[in-house]
Design brief:
The protein has 180 residues and is an alpha+beta fold. 27% of the residues lie in helices and 19% in strands. The protein contains three helices and five strands, in the order βααββαββ. Strands 1-2-3-5-4 form a five-stranded antiparallel β-sheet, covered by helices on one side. The relative contact order is 0.15.
Length: 180
């Protein structure tokens, strides 16, 4: 059944949630109308899920910006009435974000807009944010889905230093980043 394009669904309208292959707390997969208000709704859902999963605040900010930019691009350039937003934790201590516009097309590339240009910086921002935290991003071969992976912290640093020190993955069963 198609979604009502008149406006985004409310968080209380659970009918827009789509069952997924993983436990509900490990990720979410939603379909939303391809309207501008859905960007804000996707961001709110992503924020609530990140807080539930105890994703660090600094990484939540990155997740929300990536979700916003990818959703905005899907709405602007996709030709479908809906977009799909999926976020989940991978067993390799990564967070994966996917936004689908269901419109096969050549994968777009990062633009270098002039200073006076008002648009065209979305993928530039996604690229900078993901690289800043050591992640990766791209598009599926058919161009219908943008994706991004962001590494999750696995342990607190043993000492306070401005340098990033790689940590071995935590196998602590109580860790919010441990997967069944």
């Amino acid at each position: 059944m198609p979604l009502d394009p008149a406006g985004p669904p409310s968080l209380s309208a659970a009918s827009f949630l789509i069952p997924v292959r993983y436990p509900a707390t490990n990720g979410f997969d939603i379909a939303m109308p391809a309207v501008a208000a859905s960007v804000r709704q996707a961001r709110r859902i992503a924020r609530a899920w990140c807080r539930l999963r105890r994703v660090p605040d600094g990484l939540i900010d990155t997740v929300l910006l990536v979700v916003s930019e990818m959703c905005a691009n899907a709405i602007l350039y996709g030709k479908s009435d809906t977009i799909g937003v999926r976020v989940w934790m991978l067993p390799v201590y990564e967070l994966r974000i996917e936004v689908a516009d269901y419109t096969p097309s050549p994968a777009p590339s990062v633009q270098d807009p002039d200073a006076d240009t008002e648009n065209g910086r979305g993928l530039l921002l996604v690229d900078a944010l993901t690289k800043d935290v050591g992640g990766d991003w791209g598009f599926t071969a058919d161009g219908t889905r943008a994706w991004c992976t962001l590494p999750l912290p696995t342990a607190a640093p043993a000492h306070s230093s401005s340098a990033r020190v790689p940590q071995a993955p935590s196998r602590d069963p109580a860790s919010p980043y441990t997967h069944p």
